[in-house]
Design brief:
mainly alpha; 2 domains; two-stranded antiparallel ribbon; 2 strands; Transposase
Length: 110
């Protein structure tokens, strides 16, 4: 991958992260990106925004940023608990949050 392609790829990843509304940890878990790598590229782009981009662009060309993130559809998952309750999840969730929720719902009442 050429340097320009690599930079464009990471620009798309950083833009997709910012548009996702997820935390860095959750976005990285969902996309398989290392947290440290996303932090590095976010910082690198933040630093480069403070310097004029047009000075580094050859005459006749303008920088282009693709803003539409590619999202794969997520099929709903239904979980049947021992208590007879069921959970239907239509979006990725944090596994620790889900584990806590199931433990609370499966506790005996009273």
């Amino acid at each position: 991958m050429k340097k320009a392609e690599k930079v464009a790829y990471w620009r798309q990843q950083v833009d997709a992260f910012q548009a996702s509304g997820l935390t860095v940890k959750h976005y990285c878990a969902q996309t398989g990106i290392a947290v440290a790598t996303l932090h590095y590229w976010r910082k690198r782009f933040a630093d480069s925004e403070s310097t004029p981009l047009l000075a580094a662009v050859p005459e006749g060309f303008l920088p282009v940023t693709l803003a539409a993130p590619v999202r794969t559809p997520v099929s709903p998952v239904e979980i049947h608990l021992l208590s007879g309750r069921s959970l239907k999840l239509a979006a990725p969730v944090d596994t620790h949050w889900l584990q806590t929720l199931v433990q609370i719902l499966e506790r005996p009442c009273g």
